[in-house]
Design brief:
The protein is mainly alpha-helical. The protein is built from 16 helices and no strands. The protein has helices at 2-6, 13-20, 25-30, 35-45, 52-59, 62-66, 71-81, 84-96, 98-102, 105-117, 120-132, 136-141, 146-156, 159-170, 173-177, 182-199.
């Protein structure tokens, strides 16, 4: 890690070559307690063109990495530092596998990153996917990263979908208020209701 932080991107090519020399090595390293930090630093420091092959290797295993306690950080870095096209593809995968990713503790952070860095259209698609899974919003609202995602989901939805999501959570507000992280969502809902009441 220290070497990566002080070396020029061009000088880091040998690390990228090593990671891509054998099929599956990049994702194995991304799931390692210490190796994941190397992958993250490369994605952050090197130009997108330089890490394009690494990004492709990681995106082949998006769901597996997103649900992994260390692998999820590489997916989050791709969402933050990747190209617009890479973010779109990641968002599509998250949308298609919303239930599987979101019901894992590590996946919450990936969804939060997607809802922060993806395009408005992709954020809306992810939010819509969450809404179709029974009980998923309430479960996420009580998670460490999930509660932040739920607020972003509520902001991403529009019209009847927004009303549906707000109502679904409001019906369980007593549960949210007893949860360490859920109470933040409950507070958000209370504030929205106050604002709505003030404008009527």
């Amino acid at each position: 890690q220290k070497c990566i932080s002080i070396m020029e991107p061009d000088s880091l090519q040998f690390m990228l070559d090593e990671l891509l020399e054998r099929d599956g090595l990049a994702t194995t390293v991304a799931r390692h307690r210490y190796g994941c930090r190397i992958v993250q630093q490369l994605l952050k420091k090197c130009a997108t063109s330089q890490v394009s092959e690494l990004a492709e290797a990681l995106m082949l295993k998006t769901v597996t990495l997103a649900r992994h306690s260390f692998g999820n950080f590489s997916v989050q870095h791709l969402l933050e530092f990747g190209t617009e096209e890479q973010r779109h593809r990641l968002a599509q995968t998250i949308t298609a596998s919303a239930d599987e990713i979101c019901r894992s503790r590590a996946g919450d952070g990936v969804v939060a990153a997607a809802l922060e860095h993806a395009s408005p259209e992709d954020r809306r698609a992810i939010a819509q996917a969450m809404l179709t899974e029974p009980g998923l919003l309430l479960e996420m609202a009580q998670g460490r990263h999930g509660h932040l995602s739920v607020v972003r989901i509520l902001n991403a939805l529009e019209g009847q979908e927004s009303i549906k999501a707000h109502m679904r959570l409001a019906m369980n507000i007593a549960t949210l208020r007893t949860s360490r992280y859920g109470r933040n969502v409950a507070k958000y809902l209370d504030e929205k209701m106050l604002c709505r009441g003030a404008t009527q």
